[in-house]
Write a structure and sequence with these properties.
- This is Exonuclease SbcC.
- Keywords: Plasmid.
- The protein is an all-alpha fold.
- The chain has a domain of about 110 residues.
Length: about 180
């Protein structure tokens, strides 16, 4: 009985703490009842992090990494490209949505815009990552590593076979647990 009462008190305390947290205003824009960070500001923060990541990936794939100006130019180019992509996505969104509903609810409009920009940044990161990996895969260091990984095997002289770097096998699936009498 005491354990049940203790569990109920803990549940009530957790619910009260959650209610207080939910009532907090957004620390970025001040929007009320945002649990400390509204959706639009959360998307803005995540988008900034993604733009930074995309900028570094672009620099890794195309900039002179010993030149800060070259890196800064690559990051600025990424920011512009993502901004252009987000603007195009927002125009497409406005074509398929009820603009009057967005105008009637500015918070919903801010949330939708933030999410649209966030998605554009996510897509850009994937593209810049693929480009950087392709460029880095063609470096002299990568080619030398590939030659070392695929050189003739030492275990069988003259066999002409090549040694391939072993990749780990996928984890084995466990059989489902039996229920009932075991």
């Amino acid at each position: 009985m005491a354990a049940a009462e203790q569990a109920e008190r803990e549940r009530q305390a957790a619910a009260a703490a959650d209610a207080v947290r939910q009532a907090l205003a957004c620390q970025d824009c001040g929007r009320g009842q945002a649990a400390g960070l509204c959706e639009a500001c959360d998307h803005r923060r995540q988008t900034e992090a993604l733009i930074g990541e995309a900028g570094l990936l672009a620099a890794a794939g195309s900039a002179d990494l010993s030149d800060a100006g070259s890196i800064a130019a690559a990051v600025a180019g990424v920011r512009t490209a993502i901004g252009d992509s987000a603007a195009a996505a927002w125009r497409e969104f406005l074509e398929i949505t009820d603009v009057a509903a967005l105008e009637a609810d500015p918070q919903a409009a801010a949330d939708a815009y933030g999410f649209t920009v966030f998605q554009a940044a996510q897509q850009a990161v994937g593209e810049y990552r693929a480009d950087a990996l392709a460029v880095l895969g063609r470096t002299q260091e990568a080619e030398a590593e590939a030659r070392r990984a695929f050189r003739p095997s030492r275990g069988a002289p003259g066999s002409g076979t090549t040694r391939v770097a072993r990749t780990p096998s996928p984890p084995r699936r466990r059989p489902p647990a039996r229920r009932g009498n075991v």
